Amino acid sequence: MNFSYNWQATLALIATLAVVSILGKALVARIRAFDGMRDINRDQDKEKKAKSKYPPVIKSTRMIGLYTNLAFFVLVVPFIVTLDNVSIGKVLLDLFAILMVYDFFYYLTHRFLFHGQGYFRQVHALHHQARKPTHIDAFYVHPLETFIGIALFMSSTALLGLFMGPFHLATLAVAILVFSNLNVINHCHIRMDSFPGKTLSWISVKHANHHKDMHQGNYATITLLYDKLFRTLV
Q1: How far apart are CA 47 and CA 135, in angstroms?
Q2: Residue 198 contacts residue 207 (beta carbons within 8 Å)
Q3: List of the chain residues with pLDDT < 70
Q4: Nearest to residue 183, comparing CAs of 231, 139, 227?
Q5: 196: cis peptide before it, omega within 30°?
Q6: Which end of the chain is more exposed for a tag (fewer CB within 10 A), N or C?
Q7: What is the pTM of this model?
Q8: Cβ neighbours of 91 (radius 10 Å)
């Protein structure tokens, strides 16, 4: 398989992510059903950010996230992205593989490293100070944990790219958007009984259960399939 440094496709991917993110944020803001939940998260986030411990952690986390993602887009993505025509079937298969392989390794890391014994348990305990997480708690994470999470996604995608890639721009765009946004959504306070909030509510409640203490399940982040398979779903 021929791999080359495709900077044109990488720039197109970055532009796609930026446009979709802006339009998606504007669209979600127009969904009136989310207004109540948005207000709850905004009010609780304001109280948390007023505490002295939150701003420095969030700043460090965002900085390490920025640098790690920059490395991903400069050193990894150009070798595994393409603008060549591929079938819808391949896009969906590649997308499924990226997300599920990443989630498997994240499940193992989260369960046995961050919830094991020793130094990394203490690293993860910072994030678990949030017993009732809201939006801002997705960023209240130790910088080392942030790096490990992004590095897992990078390495999973790169490894699969060696065997299945290069991936179409659409595949990587959706994978990156799901990876980055689900990890925020599952920390938001969402309690709704109607579509589209019902599914998001289920995701949020399950992760809130995980935050009750350091001994709960629900370790996966993309889907709780692995928690179901390994009987850690609560």
Answers
A1: 12
A2: no
A3: 1-2, 196
A4: 139
A5: yes
A6: N
A7: 0.94
A8: 17
